[in-house]
């Protein structure tokens, strides 16, 4: 690739950051208060805009309803745009109402299923008013015990509710369906893996796509292969990036397995370069909740880790890779990948940032810019809380 092509590719990269990654979140054991953490959607959007100003590649903020609430969504859209960011995916909350104890779209009681669908329809309204493109659905639905409910009936209930919300989606929008094999349900989850998500979406239509959250796989799953398969089917809608060692750990993406993240980007770059339809339409989102990390720095680090993985993947010698593969040269092909991964892309990224008027070292600019100190002064520190009752 020429330098101009590399710069153009780097400038096209866009990662959504999640509003819920800027506030205080914790585990069931404890929520620690971080001084100056965002307290409401306005502050979350302002923080997302800071991450975009420093990185140049985080132009949208994803919302979670009703964690994010306002009286007037178009006012929030205007506020975001004035800060230089747009509204990303809209995420309904189908897991925190008391009514959803036994599920939402899969609930045995039709009245509860109707309530869940009504909430998603409200979220589609939010999508209309904010100009968002993606409705992103994740379900906590599942069973804790064998025999607890009728598994086939639950699948049918999902089919019905999914088709109802898909029909209400505006033409320009897409439905992304996220899968997860466990938690909070521990015997069966209704949309447990990419295959179940894919089977549901085939029945809906072309604007229904699978969302891959890196934390939502059982140990040993080959996520790159899932991504390649979905790309080839034209059904890869987007990502929720995070780092995992055990499961849905929600750590900083790239912090545990940088080679795995690189391999994933390598599949995406190959698909882009080889003109796979839909490869340039994939939504890239961070989905992390930072329990002990400084909020802004954690998000900025995450975005930059994705940028580094992408920049390394752009170094791939595609011709050499495909030639080695065709010749059956197992380790030669693997070596082409290793060479790209081993490239030090930091000088390239510094030069690209300087050419775009961005800070050459965004993390340093964040630390030296006094953002955290100002937020702590202006917003104060919430009371710590959460966790098991004591
Ligand atoms: C579920 C999940 C899903 C939710 C988010 C808060 O584990 O990944 O995307 O919407 O966490
Ligand atoms: Mn997720
Ligand atoms: Mn998750």
From TrEMBL:
Question: Pfam families in the record, alphabetically?
Answer: AP_endonuc_2
Listed GO biological process terms? L-lyxose metabolic process; rhamnose catabolic process
Top-rank taxon: Bacteria
InterPro entries of this UniProt entry?
L-rhamnose_isomerase, Rhamnose_iso-rel, Xyl_isomerase-like_sf, Xyl_isomerase-like_TIM-brl
Gene Ontology terms for molecular function: L-rhamnose isomerase activity; metal ion binding
Q: Which UniProt keywords apply?
A: Isomerase, Manganese, Metal-binding
- Which residue intervals define the domain Xylose isomerase-like TIM barrel in the entry? 71-249
NCBIfam families hit by this protein: RhaI_grampos
Q: What is this protein called?
A: L-rhamnose isomerase
What organism is this sequence from?
Truepera radiovictrix (strain DSM 17093 / CIP 108686 / LMG 22925 / RQ-24)
What does UniProt list as this organism's lineage?
A: Bacteria, Thermotogati, Deinococcota, Deinococci, Trueperales
């Amino acid at each position: 690739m020429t330098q101009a092509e590399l710069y153009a590719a780097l400038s096209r990269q866009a990662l959504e950051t999640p509003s819920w990654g800027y506030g205080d979140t914790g585990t069931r054991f404890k929520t620690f208060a971080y001084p100056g953490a965002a307290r409401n959607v306005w502050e979350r959007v302002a923080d997302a805009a800071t991450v975009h100003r420093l990185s140049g590649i985080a132009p949208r903020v994803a919302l979670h309803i009703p964690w994010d609430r306002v009286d007037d969504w178009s006012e929030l859209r205007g506020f975001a745009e004035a800060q230089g960011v747009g509204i990303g995916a809209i995420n309904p909350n189908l897991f925190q109402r008391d009514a959803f104890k036994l599920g939402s779209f899969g609930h045995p009681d039709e009245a509860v299923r109707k309530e869940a669908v009504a909430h998603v329809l409200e979220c589609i309204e939010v999508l209309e008013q904010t100009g968002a493109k993606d409705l992103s659905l994740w379900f906590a639905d599942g069973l804790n015990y064998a025999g607890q409910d009728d598994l086939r009936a639950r699948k049918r209930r999902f089919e019905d509710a999914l088709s109802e919300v898909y029909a209400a989606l505006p033409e320009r929008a897409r439905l992304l369906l996220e899968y997860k094999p466990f938690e909070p349900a521990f015997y069966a989850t209704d949309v447990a893996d990419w295959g179940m998500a894919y089977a549901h979406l085939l029945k809906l239509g072309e604007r229904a796509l699978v969302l891959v959250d890196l934390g939502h796989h059982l140990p040993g799953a080959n996520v790159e292969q899932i991504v390649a398969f979905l790309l080839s089917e034209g059904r890869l809608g987007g990502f929720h990036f995070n780092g995992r060692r055990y499961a849905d750990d929600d750590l900083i993406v790239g912090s545990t397995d940088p080679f795995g993240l690189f391999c994933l980007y390598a599949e995406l770059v190959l698909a882009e370069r080889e003109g796979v339809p839909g490869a340039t339409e994939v939504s890239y989102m961070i989905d992390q909740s930072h329990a002990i990390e400084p909020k802004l720095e954690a998000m900025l680090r995450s975005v930059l880790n994705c940028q580094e993985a992408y920049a390394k993947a752009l170094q791939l010698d595609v011709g050499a890779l495909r030639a080695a593969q065709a010749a059956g040269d197992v380790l030669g092909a693997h070596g082409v990948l290793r060479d790209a991964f081993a490239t030090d892309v930091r000088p390239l990224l510094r030069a690209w940032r300087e050419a775009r008027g961005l800070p050459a070292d965004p993390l340093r600019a964040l630390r030296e810019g006094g953002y955290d100190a100002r937020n702590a002064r202006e917003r104060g520190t919430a009371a710590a809380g959460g966790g098991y009752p004591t």
